[in-house]
Amino acid sequence: MTISKKLMTVLLALTLAAGLALSACQGSGDSDSSAAGAASAGDQTATGAVGNGDLGLVTPGKLTIGSDCDYPPFISMQAGKPTGFEEEMMQYVAADLGLELNYLPPQNFDTLIPSVNGGGKMDLAVSSLTINDERKESVNFAMPYFDSNQACVTLKGSGYTTADQLDGKVVGAQAGTTGADWVKENLPNATLKIFNQTSEGMAALVAKQVEALFIDEPVAKAMVADTFTDCRVTEVIITGEKYGIAVSKNNPALESAVNDSLKKLVDDGTYAKLFKKYFNYEPSITPESIKN
Amino acid sequence: MDSQGHRTDRHFLGGKLLLLLALALVCWIFFPAQSQALSTESVTAKPNDASTTKVIGGEETRITWNGIVGDKEEVSSITLVFPQGTMFSDSSYVQVQEGIRDDPEHVRPSTPKSTMTLATEQLRLDFAVPIHSKSQLRIQIYGVSLPAKSDDYYVVGSYVDGKGVTHALAEQEKPIKAIVPTLTDNLVAYFDGLDWVKSWNSVKFLNIFLNPGWAVASVSTLFPGWLVSLLLVLLGFPLAIPIGLGISFLRMSKFSIIRGLSGVYVNVIRGTPLFLQIYLAFLGLPLLGVNITPYLLSIIVLALNSSAYLAEIFRAGIQSINKGQFEAASSLGMNGFQTMFSVIIPQTIRRVIPTMTSEFILLYKDTSLLSAVGVMEQMMFAKNLAASTGILTPYVVAGCFYLVITLPMTRVITVFEKRLAASEGRSVPPEEKKKKKRVGLFNTVDPGAMSAAKPDGSMSAAATASSAPGVDVASPDALTPPDALTLTPSQGMPPDKNNKKRGRREKT
Questions:
Q1: pLDDT digits (tens, 9 = 90+) for A146-202
Q2: pLDDT tens, residue by residue, A102-141
Q3: How many Å apart are CA B457 and CA B270, to the nearest integer?
Q4: By CA distance, what is B68's nearest residue in A?
């Protein structure tokens, strides 16, 4: 009886200690983000703030972004914070607009377009969204910020050499992606399994629940190189997709403001610098290419 | 040569085409060894039916033509010839993209300038700057309708190379398989054309959640998934019953080790989310070399999960049986096994049926979690449908599919319950009849309470245990737990924590 009481006390103490430690961690994380906020506020005065009363933001003074945060190197959660090419790009845009960048917690990819369309939750969806006609029915896109293709990822040693060989097999893609659309159109006999997150799809590939996964090329290459080293990119499928930032159709002011910022980003060379940091080839979007 | 002759037969589509093919044949004959300057990689059409998986004729779609320019070759013009009967809409437009391969690792996208001529069943593009060597050329034609009949369709045509020579374009390997619109497709088209539907859909909420066209499309598309969900739970739940019963016996074992182990099983399974268990089974087991087909694995996971909940339900049910029943059975000379299966279990079943029904309903709804690991149940179909458009109506329809099972289920069980109580009334002495009927009444109220209590499993067990004895025979014995405990040591663990403490104190 007394022993179990002691045990209980010890356990309780441990739980409390763990809780305190956790909250302490959170505290330091908060101070981090406030520092980032201060930095962006500093930038704002440097670049000259744009009046943002007319941008129709979800939270005034903040640029609220929705993303699935599971798409390295574009965006992924590192130490609890969204990090990557898109995050740095949006830091620039937010600073340029004199706003604080505010990422929502990771969203399911297939809810992004409905959320922007529905309004009230996020100002922009920045999540490697390919600009296409179906999506344009619900939302508007700012200017393209990345050229991408699809990739077919399989397990090493599975013997596949082309994506076409997977027609009739069980394949995977992320919900609502152009990869899923590509499979439906190009592999009509394949069974398509839909995953909420790319990393779930990759885990399913490793667990042999699917024979192949169809995701965007840069992400496929990053995932295969870093986390899922027993997988490989079997074929890059040239689809010539362009990523765009989704913005509500009811908010043309924000759309043109974001467009202006993105143009600045490309024109002042920041885009090229960012691109070089994350990718090992020449960017196709250059000050010349966006002139018209 | 033989195969080329065959192709000519298949595409006897009129003078123009014949001329082209004759020209092609001439080319093949005169330059047999020459590699193609432009080879057709694929021609596909975007699925445009209600389920977004098939191509239907007579409806607008997008055709994508993909080709690759040969090494040291160029292409200055291309003409695509579509199957006879192909129509372009007034809003038809064409997107041309070139993937320039000046780096072997990367393709640089560009949009070549071209003049376009759209004629009957034909598209001609003249490029201002010839398409480069090794480039990938993609032409997407929007607003095209294939002929309204089921057939395999090929796109042929011709191209002009850098030297100004015209060649025939090879048809693609895989045909576009078009089908005629199904009843569902026609219904969707009908609904989308109605005036009230248009104004209905202009309200954003209604358009996204209660879109009539999408609702019709969802019903037929989700149906196979609904059957899968139903099948999974109809196989998984009956499997969970014997497992759960077995575990409930272990939980009441004389041996503390067995009691402890089975307790760990029950508490770990009930104390962790089913989601995690599914992940472990589907993504973890294969890494340990255990490969089970997804459907079988689904059934096993569902059964094991449910068995832990059922074990607690059964244990509470068995322990709620008046100890007089055990005593009476042993006074008749029955052994433990006989007592359990011919006296106690039959009475238990009656008591636990409402709780079991709740458990069934919960398990049925939980099949939706399997979509996360790619099991083709109804949420997966809904996700598949909803994901590409951002219209969430398929999920609402999926919800209705769940209700189709769960609503009648609760009703049927209520009736079943009453009948059981009534039949029990006939078999027991008249003075007990009244009280037994009250069991039925109480139990019919139970399912709601049970399902509410489920997330915290211990509550549901406690609820059965505490309400049932009180209701049961209302004998003085049943109302004094310490007494009952000391008298039935063979039954093992008491139903709830308070009792456990009390039991221990008595032992020390």
A1: 999 999 999 999 999 999 999 999 999 998 889 999 999 999 999 999 898 899 999
A2: 999 999 888 898 899 888 899 999 999 999 888 898 899 9
A3: 7
A4: A238
Instruction: Give me B217's structure tokens.
Output: 């499309």
Q: What is the ipTM of this complex?
A: 0.76
Coarse DSSP helix, strand, coil percentages of chain A, rounded to the nearest 5 percent: 45, 20, 35
Contact A207/B286, CB-based, under 8 Å? yes
Residue with tokens 């399989």: A154
Q: Which amino acid, one-letter code, is at B90?
A: D
Tell me the pLDDT tens digit for each residue of B2-58: 444 444 444 445 566 566 666 666 555 555 444 578 999 999 999 998 888 899 998
Query: What span, in angstroms and rounded, lies between the C-alpha atoms of B367 and B355?
Result: 19
Q: Which residues are bridge partners to A100 per DSSP?
A: A62
Report residue A123: phi and psi, to 5°. -80, -40
Please give the model's pTM, rounded to 2 decimal places: 0.74
Q: How far is CA A113 from CA A106, A146, A150, B199, in A?
A: 14, 18, 20, 22
Query: Pairing state of beta strands A124-125 and A62-66?
Result: parallel
Out of A134, A203, A242, whose CB is closest to B283? A203
Q: Could you tell me the two tokens for B57?
A: 């004729």
Residues A228 and A209 sit within 8 Å (Cβ to Cβ) = no
Q: Are A187 and A165 in contact (CB under 8 A)?
A: no
Dist CA A125 CA A141 (whole Å)? 10
Check if the beta carbon of residue A200 is closer than 8 Å to that of residue B369.
no
| Residue found by looking up tokens 């093949």 in the block | B28
* Architecture of the A34-145+244-278 domain: 3-Layer(aba) Sandwich (3.40)
Block residue for tokens 């104190």:
B505
With CA atoms as reference, the chain B residue closest to A195 would be B372
User: What residues in B contact A196, CB-CB < 8 Å?
Assistant: 372
Please, are residues B431 and B449 in contact by the beta-carbon 8 Å criterion? no
CA distance A37 to A21: 25
Alpha-carbon torsion, ordered B98, B102, B104, B105, to 10 deg: -70
Fold of A148-241: D-Maltodextrin-Binding Protein; domain 2 (3.40.190)
CATH number belonging to domain B2-179: 2.60.40.3550
Cα-only R_g, chain A: 22
Asked if A188 lies within 8 A of B53 by C-beta distance, the reply is yes
Amino acid type, B278: I
Nearest CA in chain A to B385: A176
| B136:A200 CB<8 A | no
Picking from B46, B105, B392, the nearest residue to A281 by CB comes out as: B105
Residues whose CB is less than 8 angstroms from the CB of residue B294 and which lie 6 or more positions away in sequence, other chains included: A209, B282, B373, B374, B375
Give the span between the Cα atoms of A169 and A179, in whole angstroms.
16
Cα–Cα distance, A172 to A202 (Å, whole number) = 9
Flag if B387 and A133 touch (Cβ within 8 Å).
no
Q: What residues in A contact B284, CB-CB < 8 Å?
A: 207
| Superfamily classification of domain B213-503 | MetI-like (1.10.3720.10)
Domain ranges for chain B: 2-179, 213-503
A34-145+244-278 and A148-241, same CATH topology: yes
Residues of A in contact with B105 (CB under 8 A): 281
Q: Let me know: does B37 contact B13? Beta carbons within 8 Å.
A: no
Distance (Å, whole) CA A178 – CA A164: 17
Q: Which two tokens stand for residue B75?
A: 């292409």
Separation between Cα atoms, residue A75 and residue B183, nearest integer Å: 44
Distance set, CA A160 to CA A211, B53, B172 (Å): 9, 24, 21
Q: Which of B99, B142, B372 sits opposite A240 (nearest CB)?
A: B99
A176: left (phi over 0), alpha (psi -120 to 50) or beta: left
